[in-house]
Amino acid sequence: MIRTFQRPLARNLFVGALAVVGTVASFSLTAAPAQAQSSASYSAVLAKGLDAPVRKVVNGALWNCTGDQCTGRSDGSSPVNTCARVAKEFGQVTKFATPKGELSADKLARCNAAA
């Protein structure tokens, strides 16, 4: 094996392969937290329940609604903007919860102004 690394081409290929493996490994480790952050789940309670279950994409995020309960993933917008889009698609919202808590009464009023 010592003789293999005395050849410049073999040594350069070995170093290049290590660099590629290291780059791929570091990229996969740094990309994972960004994906985890975008998977925040929101929930909404509608003022009037829907007649049938609905699955609809709202601003790039899939929302599932059954009766007056809706759940969906964060679309990257602020919670108030996401709530406003949900209200526009499904009707007035009485409660909107994010992983950080529920919207306050004044933010919920701004949300429903879109409906």
Overview of the molecule:
The structure is a single chain. The chain has 115 residues and is α+β, with helices and mostly antiparallel strands. The chain has 2 domains: 4-36; 39-112, no CATH class. Helices cover 43% and strands 26% of the residues. The chain contains 3 helices and 6 strands; from the N terminus they run H-E-E-E-E-H-E-E-H. Strands 2-3-4-1-5-6 form a 6-stranded antiparallel β-sheet, with helices on one face. Strand 2 (54-58) and strand 3 form a beta hairpin. Helix 2 (79-90) crosses helix 3. The longest helix has 30 residues, at 8-37. The N and C termini lie far apart (72 Å). Residues 32-38 have low confidence and may be disordered.
What are the salient characteristics of this protein?
115 residues; 26% strand; 6 strands
Outline the fold blueprint.
Layout: H1 8-37, E1 41-46, E2 54-58, E3 61-66, E4 69-73, H2 79-90, E5 93-98, E6 101-102, H3 105-112
Antiparallel strand pairs: 1-4, 1-5, 2-3, 3-4, 5-6
Helix pairs in contact: 2-3
Number of helices: 3
- The total domain count is 2
Q: Outline, from the CA principal axes?
A: rod-shaped
Biggest sheet features: 6 strands, antiparallel
Strand order of the largest sheet: 2-3-4-1-5-6
| Distance N to C terminus | 72 Å
Q: Which parts are unreliable, with pLDDT below 50 for 5 consecutive residues or more? A: 32-38
Strand content: 25-35%
According to DSSP, the number of beta strands is 6
Helix content: 40-55%
The overall average pLDDT, rounded, is 82
Taking all Cα atoms into account, the compactness measure Rg is 24 Å
Helix/strand order, N-terminal first: HEEEEHEEH
The chain-level structural class is alpha+beta
